């Protein structure tokens, strides 16, 4: 989630236009999807949705079609060398390539 200036700067450099960021107005507070509160939203439209636009978070018209930023858990690859087989564990599931 975009909770600090470094994250905002990174995505501002990578994405042009407006992007949904997983922040909404609930119970008179701006709440991230993980339940933490944000106070960094600039109010323009008095809506319940927020988007990243030109390096700032703004409330945004919920019906607008925008790009979105999705956070996913990192994938951990564990590779063990063997002459005949290469097992790889991805998110706890073991995959074996016998080629």
Structural class: mainly beta
CATH architecture of one domain: Roll
Q: What's the overall geometry? A: elongated
In DSSP terms (H or I, runs of 4 or more residues), the helix count works out at 1
Main CATH class of one domain:
Alpha Beta
Beta-strand residue percentage: 35-45%
Q: Using the CA coordinates, give the radius of gyration.
A: 19 Å
Largest sheet: 7 strands, mixed
Helix content: 10-25%
Strand tally is 10
- What is the CATH superfamily label of one domain? Mannose-Binding Protein A, subunit A
Mean pLDDT: 75
List SSEs in N-to-C order.
Answer: HEEEEEEEEEE
Poorly predicted parts = none
What is the fold-level CATH name, i.e. the topology of one domain? Answer: Mannose-Binding Protein A, Chain A
Calculate the terminal CA-CA distance, rounded to whole Å: 39 Å
């Amino acid at each position: 989630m975009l909770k600090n200036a470094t994250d905002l700067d990174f995505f501002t450099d990578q994405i042009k236009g407006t992007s949904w960021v997983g922040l909404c107005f609930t119970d008179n507070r701006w709440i991230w999807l993980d339940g933490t509160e944000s106070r960094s939203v600039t109010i323009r439209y008095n809506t319940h949705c927020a988007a990243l636009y030109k390096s700032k978070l703004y409330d945004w018209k919920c019906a607008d079609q925008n790009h979105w930023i999705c956070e996913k858990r990192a994938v951990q690859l564990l590779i063990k060398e063997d002459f005949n087989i290469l097992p790889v564990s991805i998110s706890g599931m073991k995959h074996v390539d016998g080629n």
